[in-house]
Design brief:
Order of helices and strands: EHEHEEEHEHEEEEHEEEHHEHEE
Strand order of the largest sheet: 1-2-4-3
Bound molecules: adenosine-5'-triphosphate
Number of domains: 4
Structural class: alpha/beta
Number of strands: 16
Strand content: 25-35%
Helix content: 25-40%
Distance between the termini: 21 Å
CATH architecture of the largest domain: Alpha-beta prism
Radius of gyration: 19 Å
CATH class of the largest domain: Alpha Beta
Number of helices: 8
Shape: globular
CATH superfamily of the largest domain: RNA 3'-terminal phosphate cyclase domain
């Protein structure tokens, strides 16, 4: 039984999701205590519980302590199975995060998998669906992992009710490819979308104009589409992406009641400018999300990122509890850095 202290480093939900993914994949049981100790409301929230239940279902696991607010969880997996799955988070909990928890075992499944997930699709402090489709999955594609995703309905806080689908093809017998992501990100022009659900399109226009305004002050620009998207609730978002080969960055902001459309637009643009203005290839969010796959790959991978984060450092520590990997992180938290990982060469 692997013992995990959930207050480690970042002390948030990613520790649980990475442990679930790798437990299902390796067959190693784990117990986590101090779940999300560093968060304002510690313990399991709906999104983490949904991830635990979803990974339980695909790996026929036993769970103890799987309740809202639980500070401790035990997870004992059996065999994971590819297949057709449907998971309902039941709130505006982030479907992209539950999807991410399921992918590592499913990409090593014995056949294709198809998933439908309902809940939030564009909620704060999580990757919005656009980040998954435009940034995360294309990067997995470069590692030889084929996952496609589509959105049928958008889910915003508090109503939720979003619906996404994902199709996973298992990696071949050679497993995941290691990669070296060099320097050289695109600079100056981004693409994006500014969207509203059940609100006037003028809000999306204001978000877009504010983003363009911020970008143009630094000589940058973007092609930003306007979208009125289907959702059972109301919401707004903006997503901007910069892409140059493997150097991808995706920057978003979500509207909340009382937050001006101009603030939503300029937040995403500022984050993009920060990325452009900083040395390094990979978006910091992508960096913390991709290391689990590099740890499973055969051989040595390396990449640079604009900001080393506590999420990244913490995730690497959790991954090492399950897989025989060596890694180095050069660079301080908050500053550009380089990560090298000697992968475990996982194959089923
Ligand atoms: P909590 O922080 O409440 O524990 P959590 O389960 O979301 O919740 P975290 O450990 O914070 O757990 O992990 C959040 C994940 O979402 C990380 O992988 C982080 O990089 C990612 N993320 C957060 N915001 C964004 C964003 N704007 N774009 C892309 N990814 C994001």
């Amino acid at each position: 039984m692997i013992e995990i202290d959930g207050s480690l480093g970042e002390g948030g939900g990613q520790i649980i999701r990475s442990a679930l993914s790798l437990s299902a994949l390796t067959g190693k049981a784990f117990r986590i205590v101090n779940v999300r100790k560093n968060r304002r409301k510690p313990g399991l929230r709906a999104q983490h519980l949904s991830a635990a239940r979803a990974v339980k279902e695909i790996s026929n696991a036993d769970i103890e302590g799987g309740k809202i607010d639980s500070k401790e969880l035990r997870f004992t997996p059996r065999t994971y199975k590819a297949g057709n799955y449907r998971f309902d988070i039941g709130t505006a909990g982030a479907t992209p995060l539950v999807l991410q928890a399921l992918l590592p075992p499913l990409i090593f499944g014995r056949g294709d998998s198809h998933m439908t997930l309902s809940g939030g699709t564009h909620v704060p402090i999580s990757p919005p669906f656009h980040f998954i489709r435009e940034i995360f999955l294309p990067t997995l594609g470069q590692l030889g992992i084929s996952v496609s995703a589509s959105i049928l309905s958008y889910g915003f806080y508090p109503r939720g009710g979003g619906l996404i689908e994902a199709h996973v093809r298992p990696v071949g017998k050679n497993g995941i490819r290691s990669i070296t992501f060099a320097e050289g990100k695109a600079d100056g022009v981004a693409r994006g979308v500014s969207g509203v659900a059940n609100l006037p399109i003028s809000i999306a226009e204001r978000q877009k104009d504010a983003a363009l305004n911020v970008l143009s002050q630094r000589g940058g620009g973007a092609e930003i589409e306007l979208a009125s998207v289907p959702s059972p609730g109301q919401g707004t978002f903006i997503f901007l992406k910069s892409e140059n080969g493997p150097c991808r960055g995706g920057f978003s902001s979500i509207g909340v009641r009382g937050k001006r459309a101009e603030t939503v637009g300029s937040e995403a643009a500022q984050a993009l400018l920060d990325y452009w203005g900083t040395q390094g290839c990979m978006d910091p969010h992508l960096a913390d999300q991709i290391v689990i796959y590099l740890a499973l790959a055969e051989g040595k991978s390396s990449f640079t990122t604009t900001h080393v984060t506590m999420h990244l450092i913490t995730n690497l520590s959790v991954i090492k509890m399950f897989l025989d990997i060596d890694y180095t992180v050069s660079g301080e938290i908050g500053a550009p850095g380089k990560i090298t990982i000697q992968g475990a060469g996982f194959s089923r």
